[in-house]
Automatic annotation (TrEMBL):
<feature type="compositionally biased region" description="Low complexity">
    <location>
        <begin position="25"/>
        <end position="36"/>
    </location>
</feature>
<feature type="domain" description="Fe/B12 periplasmic-binding">
    <location>
        <begin position="64"/>
        <end position="344"/>
    </location>
</feature>
<comment type="similarity">
    <text>Belongs to the bacterial solute-binding protein 8 family.</text>
</comment>
<dbReference type="InterPro" id="IPR002491">
    <property type="entry name" value="ABC_transptr_periplasmic_BD"/>
</dbReference>
<keyword id="KW-0732">Signal</keyword>
<dbReference type="InterPro" id="IPR050902">
    <property type="entry name" value="ABC_Transporter_SBP"/>
</dbReference>
<feature type="signal peptide">
    <location>
        <begin position="1"/>
        <end position="24"/>
    </location>
</feature>
<protein>
    <submittedName>
        <fullName>Iron transporter</fullName>
    </submittedName>
</protein>
<feature type="region of interest" description="Disordered">
    <location>
        <begin position="25"/>
        <end position="45"/>
    </location>
</feature>
<dbReference type="Pfam" id="PF01497">
    <property type="entry name" value="Peripla_BP_2"/>
</dbReference>
């Protein structure tokens, strides 16, 4: 029997026995996690959390989690849950992990694919939960959604930064980006029975960010986040990680009025808002050096303050998406912005 078929029969059998998460009919079960470890010792009670506006109940701590992308993977690592993972999916260009605190975890957990997350991959890994996000693995266009996985008996958890809002469901973001990080840490702490560990992380990250904010410059330069794109730049609205990182670091997000996370704008908008600083998101086939060369040579930007004064700061992708690297990123950007005079 092909491996995929065998895996499919296994997960369907598990689904028939009532394994996994369910949409909660009764919210009274919220916050009922015991103090067990992630191994789910006898006595662990079902846990209900709210994820992207949906209340879901997890009957036991997952044991074979598949994650998509670097930030999501490192949330699991930061919570000490590497032993609960069946593997992760992450392209090479987002895999700069040699100097991170979780290097050893990356060495232990299988790197399942450097391409895209698929239902087949989750089945082959015998996943009991997939932790991904909208446009971070989940999407109707690729047929991978929480609903499609749950039909196969595989539970899901959706990255809060990626939660969708609005009538058409296209825009993403339902809360400030750093609150999204704290929400996911807290929810996952309950799901895996490691609430104390999650609470300690949230407390430490809040303190780290507050300390960086206290040292931020008072002049608050405006900052434009440049992800990529030539015809139209991809940037960060008020619900993407860079918004809170810029704000807590003492800057002003030039695109704060965009009620979305990662989205495109026109170059004319960038010119009109005349940012003091441009932050480059370093990832992808186009290097940070190539992105910088383009910005400095693109004629419409010639009179923008950041270009005239060559104030271009490079940050890593994993610092800018929702991840445990966000607090340190606030401190790093705050140090850079202290040397920038707004409007000068």
């Amino acid at each position: 029997m092909p491996r995929r078929s065998a895996a499919l029969l296994t997960v369907l059998a598990l689904a028939l026995t009532g394994c996994g998460a369910r949409v909660a009919d009764d919210p009274a079960g919220a916050g009922t996690a015991g103090r067990e470890t992630a191994g789910g010792r006898p006595g662990h009670r079902p846990v209900t959390v709210e994820n992207c506006g949906v209340r879901k109940t997890y009957d036991h701590p997952p044991r074979r989690v598949v994650t998509n992308d670097v930030g999501i993977t490192e949330i699991m690592f930061a919570l000490g849950l590497a032993d609960r993972m069946a593997g992760y999916v992450m392209p090479d260009d987002k895999g700069r992990v040699d100097a991170v605190p979780w290097k050893a975890a990356y060495g232990r957990v299988p790197w399942l694919s450097k391409k895209t997350l698929t239902r087949e991959l989750a089945l082959d890994a015998r996943a009991d939960l997939v932790f991904a996000g909208w446009n971070y693995g989940f999407g109707e266009d690729n047929g991978l959604t929480p609903a499609s996985l749950e039909k196969l008996g595989i539970d899901t958890y959706v990255l809060t930064e990626s939660c969708r809002h609005g009538a058409d469901g296209g825009a993403r973001g339902v809360m400030p980006p750093l609150e999204a990080l704290y929400t996911d840490l807290t929810n996952l702490g309950k799901i895996f029975g490691v609430e104390d560990r999650a609470a300690a992380l949230v407390k430490r990250y809040r303190r780290q960010i507050a300390e960086a904010a206290d040292r931020a410059a008072a002049h608050r330069p405006s900052v434009f986040l440049y992800d990529d794109g030539r015809d139209k730049p991809l940037t960060a609205g008020r619900y993407a990680g860079p918004h809170d990182i810029i704000t807590k670091a003492g800057g002003v997000n030039a695109m704060a009025d965009l009620k979305d996370s990662w989205t495109t704008v026109g170059w004319e908008t960038v010119v009109e808002r005349d940012p003091d600083v441009i932050v480059i998101n370093d990832y992808g086939d186009t290097s940070a050096a190539q992105k910088k060369a383009f910005l400095l040579s693109y004629p419409p930007l010639a009179h923008v303050s950041a270009i005239k004064h060559r104030r271009i700061h490079v940050m890593d992708y994993a610092e800018l998406v929702e991840s445990p690297r966000n607090p340190a990123a606030v401190g790093a950007l705050a140090r850079y912005l202290r040397g920038v005079r707004a409007g000068g």
